[in-house]
Write a structure and sequence with these properties.
Elements lengths: L1 E3 L5 E4 L6 H8 L2 H4 L12 H11 L6 E7 L2 E10 L7 E8 L8 H15 L5 E7 L3 H9 L3 E12 L2 E11 L15
Parallel strand pairs: 5-6
Antiparallel strand pairs: 1-2, 2-3, 3-4, 4-5, 6-8, 7-8
Helix pairs in contact: 1-3
Length: 186
């Protein structure tokens, strides 16, 4: 898979085995780890990179892509599909290597992922939780149309601290739309 962004030389694409060194280079950073869920380890090792590339490329409803800039993987973006009563909700996550912060790459990557995910009829809602100490990520989401739905008090335990997270969501109008597999009574 290969998705263009609105930044020249920046695409979202499937992870390759050759991305291992880039994953280690950019992922083995405490500032990256500090803003991601517990599935992202620190320190980030060669074994972690190989396991991630294998996991990211499994088929299924989850989508995990590399953020490539000038021919090199510099971060990642993905959605985790909901299930049961949240079947039409996907949770968005993303990270960009620190050397590339402040260049609009995260915003471009999120915008491209939104276009891909909400284009089909598999999801009606995208949501993202941002740690309260990460206003830059909040700005990325707001720039692409996410709405701040609320603060989840003391909902995150990370880096030895219990902190708030901020819930953002983007929904599409589903009035008159029958979503795939919708067996709800009318």
């Amino acid at each position: 898979m290969r998705l263009p962004t609105d930044i020249p030389d920046c695409v979202l694409r499937s992870w390759h085995d050759t991305d291992k060194n880039a994953l280690i280079l950019h992922g083995n950073n405490r500032q990256i780890w500090r803003n991601l869920t517990g599935i992202f380890p620190h320190p980030y090792t060669e074994d972690d990179a190989l396991k991630w590339i294998e996991t990211a490329n499994r088929s299924g409803r989850d989508v995990n892509l590399a953020v490539e800039f000038s021919g090199k993987a510099i971060g990642g973006i993905g959605i985790r599909a909901g299930n049961d009563v949240t079947v039409y909700t996907a949770t968005l996550g993303y990270w960009i290597g620190e050397a590339y912060w402040g260049n609009g790459i995260a915003t471009a990557a999120v915008k491209a992922m939104i276009a891909y995910v909400l284009f089909g009829n598999e999801f009606a809602r995208l949501e993202a939780r941002v740690f309260a100490w990460n206003p830059a990520s909040m700005r990325v989401l707001e720039k692409v149309g996410f709405v701040r739905e609320g603060v989840l008090k003391y909902s995150i335990f990370k880096d030895g601290q219990i902190v708030d997270s901020v819930l953002y969501a983007l929904v599409r109008d589903t009035k008159g739309l029958t979503l795939a597999g919708d067996n709800s009574p009318s």
